[in-house]
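Each record in this resource describes a single protein on a pair of labelled lines. The shape at a given residue is found from the number at the same position. The record below illustrates this layout:

***
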Amino acid sequence: MSFWHFLIQNRRQVLDLTGEHLWLVGWSILLAVAIGIPLGILVTRVPRLNKLVLGSANIIQTIPSLALFGFLLPAPWIGERADRLAILALMLYALLPLIRNTYTGIRGVDPAVVEAGRGMGMTDRQLLLQVELPLALGVILAGVRVATVLCIGLATIAAAIGAGGLGEFIFRGLAMVNNQVILAGAVPAALLAIFADWGLGWLERRLTPQ
């Protein structure tokens, strides 16, 4: 049986697992954005937290994904459901590019522009919302882009703990030594990553100040 024949024959299951994959990635990125961007802003305001925040995010990135799932498994409430555990793990992996790019983007704003804003009587909050964040938006979106592509790839491993997603096909295919089943999970996951990278890259270019 060819790969395309298998894909058409099992299209309903492929669509269902793609939906699960997008659900895991979507929630992970939303939570990572809600936590990572404020943390990136925080370290620009309180420089002494730089090493602690970025160092912690770097350490999380060095932990192998299956090991991180294992560490989180005993956690109350989180470990009770595989999808919660997967979302938390993916969110933790997505934090580093978001924190780092937010910090880099804000710190990269021309100091003359910031000083001009201060000279106009703007408060720190106004400077952040009206000057720094709009000018840093392209760099921040680059972090969202990297985090999204990273999560799409790592979400395939979430199937190992029963969280669903396109990794179900990959692990099933490995167990069966069946390339068609492996590709049924790998190809849609790769296409999702390519589409997300292209879409967010286009948005990044549109919103980057010229």
